[in-house]
C-alpha cells in the first residue's frame, strides 16, 4: 500500500537521507529544507528528465538560466509589487497568523455556512467568500469570530483580526547602502527572467514562432504559513516554459501543453488516477490569464496543485516592451516608461510587428519530488509474514541506480573485485553506483529497497572462481536482484553494461 500519511514520508526522508529540515541544529527555519545525499540525486534526476524532454528532444525550445536577484522595475511592471500578495489574518488569542484561504478551507461546514450567510455569498464559492472578506475586512474579522472559526493550532474558536494583504516578495539591497534606489528582490518566479530576455534569445537564435524558452531555477516567496513538508515552502525550485505563439493559435497550444504535461508526469511514474486536470473558473483566474488548467495530484495531505498551464496572452511581453502604443497589445498593462527593448516579433511575410501570446507550463520541482515519493512508497507483506518498505521509483529516477555488494566483507579478493566492478559501472555515466559494505546481504537488500535502488549486484565466491562444487564455470558472473520482484538472475560482468543501459533507458 502507498504512503497513507505525510508523516510516513517525512520519517523515511529523514531516516534515509532524502530531505532534512533547514537549519535544524538551531531549531529549524520554517519553510526551508535541505536535500540530503539521496534527495539531491532524486531531485537532479527529475530536473534532468524534464530538461531532456523539453529542450534536447524538441526542435522548438531554448534554455536559459536567469539571475535570482531581480531589478525592482521588472517586478513593478510585471504587477508583482502591486498584486503579488496573499490574504492574511491573525488570532488575537494564540497570536498565530494564517493565510486566510487556507484557514477557511480547513474549517467545518457549519462554520463556513455561517460565514457565507454573514458575508452574503452563495455557499460553496470559497474564492468569492475570500474576495468578499477582503473587500470588507472589518466586517470579515467580526464575522469570523462570531462564526467560531477554529484555530488549527488549538482546535478552539479564535478572536480574529480584520484580514489584510501581505506581499510575499523578499526584499534586499544591492550595494553597501540600504536605500530606496538600491532595492531589489529575490525573484518570486523564474518566468520574468525569461520575458525580459525574449529579445536576447530571439536575436541570438533567429527563432521562428512558435518557440519556447525553458528554465529551471530557485524562486522565493515569503509564505504566511508554509506547510505540508516540501509542498509549500519559502525557497523552492521551478521548472518553467514560456512558449511563444501567434495570437489566435494560443488556444490550440494551451490544449497541447496540458496534454503534453499530463503525459510526461505519467512517464515519470505518477498514475493517471492520481492526476486530476482542473480548469480554473473565470473568477479564480490570475489577472493576466485567459485560461489556466492546473494539474492536481492526490498527495497524502489532499488533492493539490502539481503544475499549472496558463494562457497568459500578450500580458507579459506587453508589460515589459517599449513602444507599447504601436504594438496593438490586447492585455491590460501598466504604461512602461523605462524599458529600452521592443519585445515583439516581426512577421517574416508581412513585416508587421506584434506581441506574441505565451503559454506557460510551470511545475514545482519540490512538489514533483514529493509526488514521486508518495506514488513510489509501497508497504508490502512478504510470504514469510515480514513487511518491507520499497520505493518503486522509475529506475531512471532512482537516486542510486545499482548497489554493488560483496558477499563476504572479510575476503579481500571479493571486496577488491566488487570495488573494481563498481568503478567500471560508474564510468558508464548512467548515474550513481554505490559500493555497499554495511550489514549483511539481507539488510543491504532491505536498505536499498527502501531508498528505491532498482538493482543490487552481488559479488560472491562464484564470481572469483571459488564455487562450492570446485569448478570455475561461474567465474566473473554476479547475481542481479530486481527491487520490485526480488527475483535474481546471474549475469557475466561483461553483460552488465548492456543490461543496465537497457533498463535505465528512457
From TrEMBL:
Q: Does the keyword Aminoacyl-tRNA synthetase apply?
A: yes
Reaction it catalyzes: tRNA(Gly) + glycine + ATP = glycyl-tRNA(Gly) + AMP + diphosphate
State where the protein is found: Cytoplasm
Q: Which residues bind substrate?
A: 99, 189, 236-240, 360-364
Record has Cell inner membrane as a keyword: no
Q: What is its main location?
A: cytoplasm
EC class: ligase
Q: Cross-referenced NCBIfam families, in alphabetical order?
A: glyS_dimeric, PRK04173.1
User: What family classification does the UniProt entry report for this protein?
Assistant: Belongs to the class-II aminoacyl-tRNA synthetase family.
Q: Write the protein's name.
A: Glycine--tRNA ligase
Which gene underlies this protein? glyQS
Amino acid at each position: 500500500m502507498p504512503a497513507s500519511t505525510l508523516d510516513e514520508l517525512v520519517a523515511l526522508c529523514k531516516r534515509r537521507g532524502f530531505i532534512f529540515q533547514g537549519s535544524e541544529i538551531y531549531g529549524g527555519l520554517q519553510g526551508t529544507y535541505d536535500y540530503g545525499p539521496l534527495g539531491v540525486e532524486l531531485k537532479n534526476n527529475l530536473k534532468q528528465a524534464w530538461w531532456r524532454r523539453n529542450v534536447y528532444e524538441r526542435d522548438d525550445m531554448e534554455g536559459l538560466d536567469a539571475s535570482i536577484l531581480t531589478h525592482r522595475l521588472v517586478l513593478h511592471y510585471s504587477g508583482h509589487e502591486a498584486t503579488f500578495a496573499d490574504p492574511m489574518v491573525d488570532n488575537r488569542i494564540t497570536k498565530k497568523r494564517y493565510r486566510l484561504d487556507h484557514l477557511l478551507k480547513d474549517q467545518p461546514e457549519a462554520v463556513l455556512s455561517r460565514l457565507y450567510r454573514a458575508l452574503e455569498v452563495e455557499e460553496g464559492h470559497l474564492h468569492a467568500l475570500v474576495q468578499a472578506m477582503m473587500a470588507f475586512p472589518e466586517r470579515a474579522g467580526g464575522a469570523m469570530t462570531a462564526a467560531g472559526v477554529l484555530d488549527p493550532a488549538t482546535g478552539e474558536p479564535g478572536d480574529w483580526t480584520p484580514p489584510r494583504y501581505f506581499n510575499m516578495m523578499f526584499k534586499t539591497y544591492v550595494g553597501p547602502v540600504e536605500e530606496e534606489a538600491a532595492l531589489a528582490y529575490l525573484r518570486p518566479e523564474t518566468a520574468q527572467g525569461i520575458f525580459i530576455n525574449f529579445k536576447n534569445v530571439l536575436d541570438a537564435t533567429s527563432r521562428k514562432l512558435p518557440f519556447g524558452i525553458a528554465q529551471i531555477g530557485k524562486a522565493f516567496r515569503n509564505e504566511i504559513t508554509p506547510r505540508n513538508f516540501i509542498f509549500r515552502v519559502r525557497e523552492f525550485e521551478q521548472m518553467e516554459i514560456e512558449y511563444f505563439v501567434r495570437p489566435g493559435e494560443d488556444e490550440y497550444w494551451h490544449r497541447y501543453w496540458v496534454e503534453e504535461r499530463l503525459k510526461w508526469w505519467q512517464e515519470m511514474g505518477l498514475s493517471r488516477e492520481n492526476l486530476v486536470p482542473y480548469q480554473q473558473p473565470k473568477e479564480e483566474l490570475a489577472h493576466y490569464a485567459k485560461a489556466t488548467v492546473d494539474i492536481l495530484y492526490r498527495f497524502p495531505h489532499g488533492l493539490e496543485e502539481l503544475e499549472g498551464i496558463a494562457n497568459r496572452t500578450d500580458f507579459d511581453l506587453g508589460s515589459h516592451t517599449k513602444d507599447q502604443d504601436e504594438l496593438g497589445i490586447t492585455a491590460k498593462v501598466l504604461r512602461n516608461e523605462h524599458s529600452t527593448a521592443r519585445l515583439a516579433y516581426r512577421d517574416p511575410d508581412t513585416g508587421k510587428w506584434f506581441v506574441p501570446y505565451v503559454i506557460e507550463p510551470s511545475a514545482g520541482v519540490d512538489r514533483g519530488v514529493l509526488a514521486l515519493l508518495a506514488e513510489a512508497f509501497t508497504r508490502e507483506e512478504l510470504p514469510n509474514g515480514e513487511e518491507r518498505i520499497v520505493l518503486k521509483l522509475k529506475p531512471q529516477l532512482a537516486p542510486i541506480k545499482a548497489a554493488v555488494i560483496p558477499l563476504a566483507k572479510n575476503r579481500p579478493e571479493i571486496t577488491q573485485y566488487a570495488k573494481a566492478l563498481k568503478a567500471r559501472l560508474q564510468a558508464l555515466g548512467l548515474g550513481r553506483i554505490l559500493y555497499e559494505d554495511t550489514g549483511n546481504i539481507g539488510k543491504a537488500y532491505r536498505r536499498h529497497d527502501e531508498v528505491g535502488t532498482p538493482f543490487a549486484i552481488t559479488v560472491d565466491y562464484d564470481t572469483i572462481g571459488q564455487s562450492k562444487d570446485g569448478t570455475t564455470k561461474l567465474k566473473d558472473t554476479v547475481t542481479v536482484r530486481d527491487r520490485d520482484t526480488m527475483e535474481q538472475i546471474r549475469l557475466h560482468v561483461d553483460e552488465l553494461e548492456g543490461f543496465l543501459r537497457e533498463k535505465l533507458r528512457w
